[in-house]
Amino acid sequence: MRIQGHELGLFAIYDGHLGDSVPAYLQKHLFANILKEEEFWVDPFRAILKAYEKTDQAILSHSSDLGRGGSTAVTAILINGIRLWVANVGDSRAVLSRGDLAIQMTTDHEPNTERGSIENKGGFVSNMPGDVPRVNGQLAVSRAFGDKSLKSHLRSDPDIQDTNVDNSMDILVLASDGLWKVMTNQEAVDIARRFKDPQKAAKQLTAEAVKRDSKDDISCIVVRFRG
């Protein structure tokens, strides 16, 4: 798309829990809110940060309609084909291929990693029930949109990374945790690079995750940069 003379590529994965109302809301509103920020063209970092927080506040204020669920998110904004901005909350991940090497552009927000923040807010991390750490024994991520019942113990501010796009980069893989639980970053990049068509690459990654018996939701997007 073109906005104010700029070419923008907008890509995202939203992985919901307890229903799909919050991911649907994010799909409709998150990028719109980012681009509404007046400072986006001069300070994308600040604009993305503010838009994520405003969007989460809107989701919480509409919880009577959207329900009590929530969602992770990973977003990528490519500006004029030369500047890439990636942000995330939760454990959906973005991995960049640069010079054949996989570079993780996001941070997995896991309860054990951010235990201090959760406990400082009066929450706790427990492996019961189940076998993975969860906030208050319920949610397996420490940051998310929505989740009103847990919000006092969760964060919704994103980690944000940016980089210049150059000829050493060929693809970007965005995917939910269902892919990353059964595949390393390098494996995902190596598989995706076999395909010129990014849609075929994404389908192959999803099929491979299913073949490896992933038990979680699997959503995937592959972005191929121009040469």
Automatic annotation (TrEMBL):
Its cofactor is Mn(2+); Mg(2+). GO terms for molecular function: metal ion binding; protein serine/threonine phosphatase activity. Keywords: Hydrolase, Magnesium, Manganese, Metal-binding, Protein phosphatase. It holds the Pfam family PP2C. It catalyses: O-phospho-L-threonyl-[protein] + H2O = L-threonyl-[protein] + phosphate; O-phospho-L-seryl-[protein] + H2O = L-seryl-[protein] + phosphate. Its EC number is 3.1.3.16. Residues 1-225 form the PPM-type phosphatase domain. The keyword Hydrolase applies. Belongs to the PP2C family. This is protein-serine/threonine phosphatase. The gene is LOC110416704.
